[in-house]
Amino acid sequence: MAFKHLINFKKFYSLIAMFLLLGSNLVMAQATSSNATATDSGDTSAQSAGMWASVGYYTLLFVIVCVVVAVVGKILKVYDLTLQMQGKKGINWNNVMATGFLIFLVAGIIGVYYSFSEHGSMILGPASSVHGKTLDTMFWITFAITFVVFLATQILLFGFLFKYKGSDKRKAYYYPHNNTIEKIWTVAPAIVLTILVVFGFLTWRKITNTVDAKGEVASLNVDVTGHQFAWELRYPGKDGKLGKKKSKLISGTNKLGINYEDKNSFDDLAADTLMLPVNKSVRLNIIAQDVIHSVYMPNFRVQINAVPGLPTYFKFTPTKTTAQMRSDLDQPDFNYHLYCNKICGGSHYNMQKIVMVVSQAEYQNWLANQKPYLSDQLKKELKLADNALYRQFQLQNSLASNN
Ligand SMILES: [Cu+2]
Predict the structure, then answer these.
(1) What CATH number does the domain containing 314 carry?
(2) What domain count does the chain have?
(3) Which residue of 84, 264, 271, 298 lies most exposed, with the fewest beta carbons within 10 A?
(4) How many CB atoms lie within 10 A of CB 315?
């Protein structure tokens, strides 16, 4: 039977696989977007009904495509047989295939153009940090080079398929080896890749050199500690210095293991939002308490792993306030975010904090209203009332406020 002939098991299964892949991606995308728009009312039954309707839709679409392929195949077969009965040559499948490849090439290029012009802006918005602009330049240069190579190879690939399609008049030429070609296609990519790698190395060094102890000291130091599944933030108090930490001191009340033998620890502050003054350098001291997490702030082009036992850091300078971004993007509810970019466990997606970039005055105002990390409970636990160092700190504080 022709249908059986046209759609054999291999084709059938690969079509099913293709549709399931496409279908599940689209269903998931739809579910995510409906999640994003829905409030937290938890209307899951409507959601799952919607998902099954989508599954039904793609199954139906799959069956329709199968039928269309079978019908077109049948028509062609009949046409082919009719030609042969009339003593004419049948369909030249080599021509059909070659033309198909050419159409695929043109449609693919149009698709790439459409996709890029339509969704290109979604790749990443403008960078909101000083070093981000350098990284973006590197990204676009790499993109341009790889795109030109991609385009050239695709045109050659499909162009050759078309030009040298199977023909009775031509015999394939046996051409096993050519040293010159081998040299060209080894040396040319090697040179291009070397340029890209060196370029990347220099850019990264330029960014991280300012983080180095040798570089300029950051105006602000913030501790970012990751654990399953949250980020904890610690700001320095009036002294501008963060106190020392000791992992052995971590407890229910002292979640970060702050060491109160260091007098700089007493005035440290705990914060819920990563508040940053605009155009001031910030150094994030990054720590993980359990598994590897990753500090990721896409708008600032910041990403670095948080590794247990191996503190990392990143210094950068935000250049655009949240308010500026809101008006630039025309999104009144826009916020910068700090995400975790390592799949670190079941509630990984919960690991996000709002980042606010504000003016220096707003920042000072906010800082004055943050609660100290040193809670009353912790004071009791550490018996700070009898601690000479702490009493000295209190005395200095009261003297400062009296002045
Ligand atoms: Cu994480």
Answers:
(1) 2.60.40.420
(2) 2
(3) 84
(4) 23
What mean pLDDT is predicted for residues 287-293? 91
- State how far the Cα of 340 lies from the Cα of 337, in Å rounded to an integer: 10
How many angstroms does the Cα of residue 128 sit away from the middle of ligand 1? Answer: 23
Residues at Cβ < 5 Å from ligand 1 ion = 293, 340, 344, 351
Distance 255 CA to ligand 1 centre (A): 17
Residue 131 has a CB neighbour count (10 Å cut-off) of 23
Of the candidates 111, 397, 129, 87, the one whose C-alpha atom is nearest the C-alpha of residue 284 is 129
Q: Is 265 a domain residue?
A: yes
pTM for this prediction? 0.70
Section 289-301 average pLDDT? 92
Q: Ligand 1 centre and the CA of 52: distance in Å?
A: 32
Q: Which domain holds residue 236?
A: 220-383
- Gap between the Cα atoms of 308 and 342, Å rounded: 13
Residue 23 has pLDDT above 70, yes or no: no
The answer to whether 301 and 137 are in contact (CB under 8 A) is no
Using pLDDT thresholds of 50, 70 and 90, give the confidence band for residue 40: very low
Amino acid identity of 183?
K
Q: Flag whether 396 is in a domain.
A: no
DSSP per position, 227-274: ETTEEEEEE--TTS-PPPB-GGG--SS-TT-B-TTSGGGTT-EEESSE
Q: Which residue has the tokens 């829905």?
A: 38
**Residue partners of 291: CB distance under 8 A and separation at least 6:** 228, 308, 342, 344, 345
- 167 domain residue, yes or no: no
Phi, psi of 296 (to 5 degrees): -135, 120
Q: What's the number of CA atoms in the CB half-sphere (13 Å) around residue 255?
A: 17
Model confidence over 100-145: pLDDT tens digits? 999 999 999 999 999 989 888 777 778 899 888 888 888 888 889 9
For residue 338, which of 242, 233, 240, 217 has the smallest C-alpha distance? 233
